[in-house]
Design a protein that fits this description.
Elements: E1 10-13, E2 22-28, H1 32-37, H2 43-48, E3 53-61, E4 64-74, E5 85-91, H3 94-106, E6 110-111, H4 116-123, H5 129-140, H6 144-154, H7 157-182, H8 187-220, E7 222-228, H9 234-242, E8 260-266, E9 269-275, H10 285-300, E10 303-309, H11 316-324, E11 328-333, H12 346-350, E12 353-357, H13 365-376, H14 393-415, H15 421-438, H16 444-451
Parallel strand pairs: 1-6, 7-9, 7-10, 10-11, 11-12
Antiparallel strand pairs: 1-2, 2-5, 3-4, 4-5, 8-9
Helix pairs in contact: 5-6, 7-8, 7-15, 8-14, 14-15
The chain binds guanosine-5'-triphosphate (GTP) and magnesium ion (MG).
Amino acid sequence: MSYLAVDDDICALATVPGVSALAVVRCAGPHCIEKVAACTSRQNAFMALPGYRALFADLLDASVLVDECVFVVFRAPKSPTGQDGVDIMCHGGPVTVRKIMSLLVRNGFREALPGEFMFRAVYHGKIDVLKAEAVDELVKARTESAQEEAIKKLKGGLKAEFEVLHSHLIACAAACAVQLDYGEEEAGETIDVMTAELEKAYTLCTELAASYARGRLMQDGALVVLAGKTNAGKSSLFNRILKEERSIVSDIHGTTRDYVEAAIDVHGIPVRLIDTAGLRDTTDSIEAEGVRRTELLIDSADVVLYVVDATRGCTEEDAERMQSFKRCIGVWNKVDSPDALPVPDCNTQTALQWVKTAAKTGSGEHELMQALYSMLISDSNTSVVLNCSVSTRRHYEVLERIVHLLETLREKLRCAKQHVFDMYYVDIEEILAVYAELVGDTDPEMILDSVFSQFCVGK
Ligand SMILES: Nc1nc2c(ncn2[C@@H]2O[C@H](COP(=O)(O)OP(=O)(O)OP(=O)(O)O)[C@@H](O)[C@H]2O)c(=O)[nH]1
Ligand SMILES: [Mg+2]
């Protein structure tokens, strides 16, 4: 089934499946109002409802009561999708929802594809692609910072940055067009104007592309693994960070057998924090499996917090391990103990950053989170000050293409012995065509997969 089949009636559960006070089953399509009305106890009142009005009625399946619902009717074209629509607010039990979906499908609805309602809204010009992407980002935001960033985009923050880029491209195209129309006397001046506009476009475009590292981090988050030898205090630290007794703590070596994970917010970055089985040679097959899992997690971690028991010190084996990790912070734990040894010298022993902690008292936790944040954003160009950062791969890839085209044109302008303005004009037109893709001002089919298939069903 294709998104482009916009003339059929679609339905989907728009709320999270499961037990809840209410659930919303969303319907859209040219005949959806009469189809839903036909399944209610108040068909005539339903059909007479103007848009954005609600009606309380029984939902019936061949005269058998399915649920008592509130129906909100939307009438084209003043509707969220630009088509007729009905939001069915029913009781939130999964069986009720299943029955309603089945009833709708038997009455001519098709189950919507992910993001299909959004697609229809874009298709009918109710919102643009950038706004649809901002809505998707908003519903998927996992930290307050990510949510606030998405709100900025919803309010046109990213679009404003893109429009500045567009204005430079247009200024460049305009200078070129004037030159083409009025001859070549002022060629030098025109080249200066074009070069200046291209430079501005290039700077902004590279900044936008560079902001993707931060944007993606805020949106997708990071995987952080607590690893180290047994009894180092990994689980104690995990519980301390979570502020709850999630992992079992004991002075017996090998207490944690399988990994335990939790979601935390590190200064706005959504992080999956994982407590793992302590690393040691063992003949116990279950513990060995735990160690194997730890190693797998370490391989895919963005950062490893390698916990060392300060009362036992850092062995060569610890140091070697830590140096083999992509990104690692040494956590010198149990500094509250009278037997704690001095923290190793970064330069001589491990060449790593160490943070001193006492999971037992909470000392050093703040410094650890700060160090983790700094390491996580070390790839992001924080010197870039933009209103919004780019957080979708699609935007990033299109921006990279524009950067490349701008570089090529800049070089042509710089190196040409004789300026061929009609050739430059074709190049600028090509850049503008790629720009149109960026803002979604293009054939909907071109961006279907990369945009709408990522959305939730019911959105
Ligand atoms: N004094 C002191 N004791 C700690 C600290 N952190 C952990 N401990 C103790 O060290 C012991 C081991 O702690 P765990 O958190 O279970 O250690 P682990 O690294 O998860 O151990 P495994 O699961 O066996 O790999 C427990 O008795 C803790 O109470 C600390 O900061 N100071
Ligand atoms: Mg443990």
